[in-house]
Amino acid sequence: TVPSGVTIANSGTATGFGGANTPTFLAKLSADQTLSNQAYTKANFNTEVFDPQSTYDNSTNYRFTPGVAGKYFIYGQADFEGSDITANWIIIRKNGSNLWGSHHDSSGHTYTTQYIGVTDIASATDYYEIFVYLDTTGTPKLKANFGSPLDVSFFGAYKIIE
């Protein structure tokens, strides 16, 4: 308990004052990803914006493995392109199983965007992935951007300071 009016000076050796939101990462698409229509497809976020702890695999499995147990905020956005889009999903999977999802029913759209952000408790070896689903009459795509530097599909996470 800190009495009112007291000032605390941290000389750099004291513990319990905040912390770092690490591990952390943010990844995006380098180009549009063609999807299978009416099927769940893993989003291949292959360009790291930042990943200082090397916890995101941007070339093989496209997954985040924290390496440190704790609570994490995990988020993603999928921007879809098709013709006469009727439904879309973005799902966060943990260890291969659906964890959370966000769904939108639409009718007749060419573009639609879906965002998800959740907090989860992770062990050091848990892994997280983004899967997407699009129902369209056209060629289903996960859009990378709408002109530089407007990136519209991404996946990220950071550890919550407790």
Strand content: over 45%
How many whole angstroms does the radius of gyration measure? 19 Å
Distance between the termini: 17 Å
Helix content: under 10%
Count of alpha and pi helical runs: 0
Q: What are the secondary-structure elements, in order, as H or E?
A: EEEEEEEEEEE
- Runs with pLDDT <50, length 5+? none
DSSP, total strands:
11
Oligomer: single chain
Structural category = mainly beta
Largest sheet: 9 strands, antiparallel
Mean pLDDT: 91
Shape: elongated
What does this protein structure show overall?
With 162 residues, the protein is mostly beta strands. The chain has strands spanning 24-28, 33-34, 41-42, 47-50, 56-57, 63-64, 70-94, 97-122, 128-135, 141-142, 154-159. The strands form two sheets. Strands 1, 2, 3, 4, 7, 8, 9, 10 and 11 form a nine-stranded antiparallel beta sheet that branches. Strands 5-6 form a two-stranded antiparallel sheet.
Please supply descriptive tags for the structure shown above.
single chain, 162 residues, mainly beta, nine-stranded antiparallel β-sheet, two-stranded antiparallel ribbon, 0% helix, elongated
Task: Annotate the secondary structure layout.
Elements lengths: L23 E5 L4 E2 L6 E2 L4 E4 L5 E2 L5 E2 L5 E25 L2 E26 L5 E8 L5 E2 L11 E6 L3
Antiparallel strand pairs: 1-4, 1-11, 2-10, 3-9, 5-6, 7-8, 7-9, 7-10, 7-11
